[in-house]
Write a structure and sequence with these properties.
The protein has 221 residues and is an alpha/beta fold. It contains five helices and four strands; from the N terminus they run αβαβααβαβ. Helix 2 crosses helix 5.
């Protein structure tokens, strides 16, 4: 779900020539499967295109990624354990850490020291602030809707959409700092595929992993 939503935001902003959006799960139980039919239904009802086949995230991908997005704290920890270095681990962020409208104590706000702008750097990661001290990690999770009804999937879509706006702002700021023009056409410095921002949206739903079941992994529910 997060992959489809964020790709649409990137295309709407004219950055699809610079930003690569992809997804994978932290486990390989459902490699080759499509997204959960309820995820597909909710996305299509909201006007998003969805064409997804599950695969497993590989540690060696960190070298070509600027940002790795996790949808809950469990997957954040799992992805950071896979990271070959501290620099790579710092690339992993929770999606809802980019939702600046979430109430204090549950998510981050815009960095006041930067004039209200989300921080972003292509030299290894695109970042938002971390959750404030004392924040409960699950407040930043996108909940698993697998065992509920369609309303749960619709709620997840709302959360993903809200956070994607902040994520897009951070990515755009990072590209501007690297010299990419507003129209999204790459400059010489970022013309290669290595210069593109690659966002790997990850959410594993498995009954063998913390009792959770697959809800469209890895397109994300």
């Amino acid at each position: 779900m997060a992959e489809a939503v964020f790709r649409a935001r990137v295309e709407e902003d004219g950055l699809d020539g610079l930003v690569v959006v992809d997804s994978a799960g932290t486990g390989g139980w459902h490699e080759g499967d499509g997204a959960d039919p309820r995820t597909v239904a909710v996305l299509r009802a909201a006007g998003y295109e969805e064409d997804h086949t599950a695969r497993q995230f590989r540690a060696e991908w960190f070298g070509t990624l600027d940002l790795v997005i996790a949808l809950d704290e469990g997957h954040l920890r799992a992805l950071r354990r896979l990271a070959p270095s501290a620099r790579d681990a710092a690339k992993v962020r929770l999606l809802r850490s980019y939702d600046t409208a979430v109430a204090p104590g549950g998510a981050v706000r815009r960095d006041e020291n930067r004039g209200g702008r989300l921080d972003g750097h292509l030299g290894g990661t695109v970042t938002s602030g971390e959750a404030p001290t004392g924040a409960r990690s699950h407040d930043l999770d996108v909940p698993d809707p697998y065992y509920g009804g369609m309303a749960g999937f619709e709620e997840c879509l709302e959360m993903v959409e809200a956070a994607s706006a902040g994520l897009l702002a951070a990515v755009r700021a990072a590209l501007e700092e690297e010299g990419a023009p507003a129209g999204g056409q790459p400059t010489d410095e970022i013309r290669s595929s290595e210069g593109k921002v690659r966002s790997s949206a990850d959410q594993l739903r498995s009954s063998t992993d913390q009792g959770r079941s697959p809800a469209g992994e890895p397109s994300v529910a």
